[in-house]
Automatic annotation (TrEMBL), chain A:
The lineage of its organism: unclassified sequences, metagenomes, ecological metagenomes. One of its GO terms (molecular function) is glutaminase activity. Coiled coil: none annotated. Residues 4-188 form the CobB/CobQ-like glutamine amidotransferase domain. This is Unannotated protein. GO terms for biological process: cell wall organization. InterPro entries: Class_I_gatase-like (IPR029062), GATase_3 (IPR011698), Lipid_II_synth_GatD (IPR043702).
Automatic annotation (TrEMBL), chain B:
GO terms for molecular function: acid-amino acid ligase activity; ATP binding. PANTHER family: LIPID II ISOGLUTAMINYL SYNTHASE (GLUTAMINE-HYDROLYZING) SUBUNIT MURT, MUR LIGASE FAMILY MEMBER. Residues 305-404 form the Lipid II isoglutaminyl synthase (glutamine-hydrolyzing) subunit MurT C-terminal domain. This is Unannotated protein. Signal peptide: none annotated. Residues 57-260 form the Mur ligase central domain.
Length: 232, 421
């Protein structure tokens, strides 16, 4: 069984340890006997269309500018891959780039890949800090640092948020998990990594494997510690 | 009159805080409450009495070490120097430091001033300090909860350097090199760098949209070789052997920056061999690879502020730590960057501690690095570290800690002098 992961623009996007999401998918799959491959795609590279999971990370204004030229290619290939059933994990700027347009500080904007019906505008005040919330019935925690807000027609991914001035975060759509929860998103909330792995390989992550249970246990303690940090 | 009162009161507060076993920026804070422009007044007095050069050192990593090196170089040349102690790089820290030497009239008798400046506060302080020389070390991904984006830090650092006539830049960092290029038409720009073969993975500069375009500057000082604490620098083309206070390419780059600054501040009086021995005689700055005593054995403290500083310190490890303590607390508010760290230099961690202990345990689990104990309470955890480990192969234990845990640890072990005073 194999899991093919594409990491989009790791040099330009990934300011908040977003590679953690790739690591969580890769290691949890491997620990369950799945062959997991990771392919990094650069700004001038073609985007493979037959992968299982695409991860696109967060970035600064410079990062957004640097990937702008790749957006037409990404729009074409990612749309095809997504309609063929691929999962897209998008963090921060990477999530904004799934919409149709992202505004940049000095009035310029970057066209996005257009997978979701949304545009990103600048927030009056930057949103920074840890949060606790839930995805469906599952509690999630993570760290946010964002200067943008996403406006459009979509369902949020994280709801019932405590610790920050927002009620919800991100985008949940068929095959799309978009959020601002940075690199620790899947490592700290491994249930969602396991769901992705099982969906694409048919193999359930082996919760009895000591490596899996160590990571799952530590993640659970991390969520408790973060909630304590928030006074919850 | 008000200045005299502020100085006296500040000194009184300092005596009291010291008696209580502490030390802090509180005396400086009190002075600034009474005389908000205290720093500016003292600096104006220095600069008008006689032309004393004022150098500022800023950037993401290496400020404390480089400032100490520059001070050591100047003092070895017989100069009296005013500086802020390492970490005291906020306005109250600088005002606190001034209390020791300033007269009641607000006069400092010195030949030179070298200050490390926090990137954000430095913008406001640069107006008060009016630097003649600015040393720009690097712009790395650091404290994004405070700075948001590296681009903003580039702009802060540019504004700190703007009033100076001489700007000394790290040409191996794309961002500071780019600032050097911008300043070149209007300022005296001096470069220092590290040759590619010594830092094959680069110097962990932040991607702030500054490309790696080369420039025509010939660096005044280059790092040409690093072997642990022994480094060879090329100064004006001549090789110069320097022993670093702690091992690592990043400390060698700091030394190159300090030498370039020293050379510009001292002009004809600069003697590169005097400068080299001044650095070679230095002790490590607090927590930057310093060795203290714990459980009857040496303990090497490695402080990590952010991703680049931890990675640079891991790269500099000569061998895998045998007895390793890792403690990170809320002083590192968003630890997302731990997933960017290459942990291959570690084969295990004995004790993981601090309020971010479980975040780190999660990271270590995904890296398949075994851990002994995970305990959030640092006091309990450190005791367990003493009980569970005994230096054998290595004659010392190692602690990798963030700034706040480093300060707590030093205090706990009876190393009382407080940084940032
Ligand atoms: Zn955002």
């Amino acid at each position: 069984m194999t899991l093919r992961i594409v990491h989009l623009y790791p040099r330009e996007l990934g300011m908040f340890g977003d590679v953690g999401n790739v690591i969580a998918l890769q290691m949890r799959a491997r620990w369950s006997g799945i062959v997991a491959s990771v392919e990094s795609v650069g700004v001038s590279d073609a985007v493979p269309e037959n992968a299982d999971v695409y991860m696109i990370g967060s970035g600064s204004t410079a990062g957004l500018r640097a990937v702008a030229e790749a957006m037409p290619t990404l729009a074409r290939s990612l749309t095809r891959a997504h309609s063929a059933g691929a999962t897209v994990v998008a963090i921060g700027a990477g999530l904004h780039l799934l919409g149709s347009r992202v505004d940049i500080a000095d009035g310029e904007s970057v066209d996005g890949a257009g997978l979701i019906d949304a545009t990103s505008t600048l927030r009056a005040e930057r949103l920074v800090g840890p949060l606790s919330g839930s995805i469906g019935k599952q509690g999630v925690t993570g760290y946010v640092n964002s200067g943008h807000q996403l406006i459009g027609t979509f369902n949020p991914l994280v709801e019932r948020i405590e610790g920050l001035s927002i009620e919800s975060d991100g985008v949940s759509a068929d095959g799309i998990l978009g959020t601002h929860l940075h690199g620790p998103f899947l490592p700290m909330n491994p249930k969602f990594a396991d769901d992705i792995i099982e969906k694409h390989t048919g193999v359930a992550v082996d919760q009895d494997d000591p490596r899996v249970s160590r990571a799952t246990g530590a993640a659970s303690h991390s969520r408790v510690a973060l909630r304590r940090e928030l006074g919850l | 009159m008000l200045v005299a009162l502020a100085v006296l009161l500040g000194r009184f507060v300092r005596v009291v805080t010291r008696m209580r076993g502490g030390g802090s920026a509180l005396p400086g804070w009190v002075v600034l409450k009474l005389v908000p422009d205290f720093v500016a007044r003292v600096m104006t007095r220095i600069q008008s009495d006689h032309a004393v050069p004022v150098a500022v050192v800023t950037g993401s990593n290496g400020k404390s070490t480089t400032t100490s090196m520059a001070v050591a170089i100047l003092e070895a040349h017989g100069k009296r120097v005013f500086s802020n102690p390492s970490g005291g790089n906020l306005p109250q820290g600088i005002a606190s430091a001034m209390l020791t030497d300033v007269t009641l009239g607000g006069t400092l008798s010195v030949d030179a001033v070298v200050l490390e400046l926090d990137e954000a506060y430095g913008v406001q302080l640069a107006d008060a300090v009016r630097p003649s020389h600015a040393l720009l070390l690097n712009i790395q991904v650091d404290q994004l909860n405070r700075f948001f984006e590296p681009e903003r830090v580039v702009e802060m650092v540019r504004r700190i350097a703007e009033p100076a006539h001489t700007v000394i830049v790290n040409d191996s960092d794309a961002n500071t090199r780019s600032l050097g290029n911008q300043f070149a038409p209007t300022h005296d720009v001096v470069g220092f760098d590290v040759v590619d073969r010594v830092a094959p993975d680069g110097v962990y500069g932040a991607n702030a949209g500054n490309d790696a375009a080369k420039d025509a500057r010939t660096p005044l000082v280059s790092v040409t070789a690093v072997d642990g604490v022994n480094t060879t620098l090329a100064y004006a083309g001549e090789p110069l052997a320097v022993r670093l206070p702690s091992p690592g390419v990043h400390y060698a780059v700091d030394a190159a920056g300090a030498l370039a600054l020293g050379a510009r501040l001292l002009g004809d009086e600069f003697d590169s061999s005097v400068a080299a021995s001044a650095i070679s005689d230095m002790k490590p700055v607090y927590g930057r690879g310093e060795t203290v005593e714990a459980f009857g054995s040496p303990l090497t403290i490695v402080m990590m502020k952010n991703h680049p500083s931890l990675q640079a310190n891991l790269d500099a490890l000569s061998e895998t730590p045998e007895s390793l303590y890792l403690a990170v607390d809320d002083g590192t508010p968003d630890p997302s960057w731990i997933y960017d760290i290459d942990l291959s230099r570690l084969d295990h961690v004995d004790v993981v501690s601090g309020s971010k202990a479980w975040q780190w345990e999660t990271r270590l689990a995904y890296a398949e690095i075994p851990t002994g104990v995970v305990e959030q309470d640092a006091r309990t955890a450190f005791e367990a570290f003493g009980t569970n480990t005994s230096p054998k192969r290595q004659k010392h234990r190692t602690a990798i800690v963030n700034y706040e845990q480093m300060m707590d640890l030093r205090r706990e072990l009876g190393y009382m002098e407080i940084e940032g005073e």
